[in-house]
Amino acid sequence: MDVRGDIEGRYARVRDEMAREGVDALVVSGSEYTGFDGAVAYMSGFQIVHRYAYVLVPLEGDPAIVFPSEARYVGFHDAAWVDERVFVDTPGAWLRDRVGGASRVGVYGLDYVMNVRDYRALAEGAFEIVSFDEPFDRARAVKSEAEMESVREAVRINEEGFWEVLRAYEPGKTEAQIMAPAAARFVELGTGRHAMNMVLASGPPGGARPEFVIPSETRRVSPDDLLLYSLEIGGPAGHWAEVSRPIMAGEPSPVTAEMMEAYVEYGEIARAVMKEGSTAHDVHMAVSKPFRDRGYALGHVTGHSIGMTMIEHPRVGEGNETVLRENMVFSMHPHVIAGDGSCLYMQETWRIGNEAGEQLSGLPLKIFDGSELT
Q: Mean pLDDT in the chain?
């Protein structure tokens, strides 16, 4: 993804949000923890390999990228398009001193990402510190054409991983043996360590339970196990995508079959409602209706914005009146739970269109059994 033409636009949108929120300076936090390094890459071009980093964005003037001293040899620092690169023992202290004249400092990642010692040092300043998570995500929610190319590439890689899982699927194998070829293919196609791959725990015959677990190296699957490998990867340029479908050789239980019927309806509704001008609340209420009408509970929100951070604002849930705009990208994954504890869950990455939503993978909403390979 060539983002050189996008850089000025990124900074302009972020600074518009800073001005709107009355923020004099912004600290953008990133960590090696899977899925929480993308904000730094978005604002600097630097990919965190280990440790953590910050990008300082003043309302006016040039940005800087700040690393802890122990991260000097971790990552290709020259890949950053930010000219000022600083290595210090306590980045929070350096940030505090640099923004000393500010009255209000925003922090992206204040609740989940920022290193504790750096927060403590930053908090010794005379300025007010405010969370900037939602304003930052608003600024990056609408994807440029270059970003959409990156998103589509990530979806293609994720979809290829699904077919690897399906090719490897065979009752009698372990969950890990079935997952392994997809994990290898992801690395081959440039995801690096940007992958979070899990499987739904086995449940009653013909169904699955709602808990996500690491694929087992010892548990061997049976034909009546409904397998749902949750494939979540970041592509080579840093955008995340989530695509998954259930797999089983046997027959789904009556409850699973009914949940599947609701999922098919959900897909048709999503295409109609995920368009410019809808709100996140509108989408949630519309796509959850097939499940609620059948008496099923939803385990959590029906989806969320996704980009260079795995989970971004806005969430797709009741009461969220954020207006959706064309080229926003969402991971949609209703987590449907029946009264007997069984579950159906599948992920899809969607683009908000002008008149209708676009499902970015080519996979139908169905339970696969392996016959699709012949």
A: 94
